[in-house]
UniProtKB/TrEMBL annotation:
Domain Xylose isomerase-like TIM barrel: 26-241
Pfam families: AP_endonuc_2 (PF01261)
Protein name: Sugar phosphate isomerase/epimerase
Upper classification of the organism: Bacteria, Pseudomonadati, Pseudomonadota, Gammaproteobacteria, Enterobacterales
Organism (species): Pantoea trifolii
One example GO MF annotation: isomerase activity
Taxonomic superkingdom: Bacteria
Keyword Cell membrane on entry: no
Length: 282
């Protein structure tokens, strides 16, 4: 009997809505996991209160209330900035407070590669001490192009040299930043050092990139979903409906949140598609 996929929802799809509402919908639709997404710029400007003990307690209360589990925290920001090590220490503490050991984050600009490597080497002992793992994610826009293709990520891990830094793969990100690449095959190349995966589909409207329900875009997820289930690698649907990317990969966030009816529709259709894929594996 094949393994069942560990599937959750990244809260970026609920950008602008209350977490209580988001968790309730995720639970009612039959998902078991949630990934809280505090990604700078993609879900608005973040402030330190989100990483406070009070907010950690609120998240734990909501997890209990809606009978959800969490395995990962989304916490993307520029990992090459001078404050990155201190910022990551704060996020490690918050992750521990909500019971999470995996922290997902995109990297930095290629031009800041040396600072990125230095910061990752400095944060590695803190991760090891906390029993956490920072999962670097292939970027989806030019602000995070230090790691865009599989070989670049593999080289970065070799330079950092710590088991506390691994991969969170995202094929949908690769479509906008490196559109000529075979995104699914590139992400599958990362599987030996992947601890988590984002599932994001993409369609093009003119020259711009938008995010539909899984299975309704250009990516064939069947081989990757099968591998994730077989290797017991958890994943979340990261479908940032409030955001799209321009032809040059620049992210554009709408001024208004997406309606809850549309969010429910997208999550329901995505789950139906992935459940259908899994039924084919039997």
């Amino acid at each position: 009997m094949p393994n069942s996929l560990k599937l959750g929802v990244n809260t970026s799809i609920f950008d602008g809505h209350d977490m209580d509402v988001a968790f309730g919908i995720i639970s009612r639709l039959g998902y078991e996991y949630v990934e809280v997404a505090y990604n700078q710029g993609y879900v608005g400007d973040l402030d330190d209160s989100l990483f406070s003990p009070a907010n950690a307690q609120r998240i734990r209360t909501l997890l209990d209330k809606h009978q959800l589990k969490t395995l990962a925290l989304g916490c993307t920001f520029n990992l090459a900035r001078p404050e990155a090590v201190a910022y990551l220490q704060t996020r490690i503490g918050f992750a521990q407070a909500i019971g999470v050991k995996l922290l997902n984050a995109c990297t930095a600009k290629r031009e800041d590669y040396a600072a990125l490597v230095s910061n990752l080497r400095q944060i590695a002992p803190y991760l090891e001490h906390a029993g956490c793992c920072l999962l670097i994610e292939n970027g989806g826009d030019h602000n995070y192009d230090a790691f865009a293709l599989a070989a670049e990520g593999e080289e970065l891990l070799r330079e950092v040299g710590s088991a506390a830094v691994a991969f969170n793969g995202d094929a949908g990100n690769m479509v906008s930043l490196r559109p000529q690449a075979d995104a699914i095959q590139q992400i599958m190349q990362l599987l030996p050092q992947m601890r988590h995966c984002h599932i994001k589909d993409v369609y093009k409207q003119g020259a711009e990139f938008h995010f539909p329900p899984i299975g309704q875009g250009i990516l064939d997820y069947q081989p990757l979903i099968k591998s994730l289930a077989a290797q017991d690698i958890p994943c979340t649907l990261e479908i940032p409906l409030r955001m799209h990317r321009l032809a040059d990969s620049t992210p554009v966030r709408s001024d208004t949140p997406v309606g809850l009816e549309r969010i429910v529709e997208v999550l329901r259709e995505s789950k139906k598609y992935i459940d259908g894929l899994q039924s084919d594996f039997g």
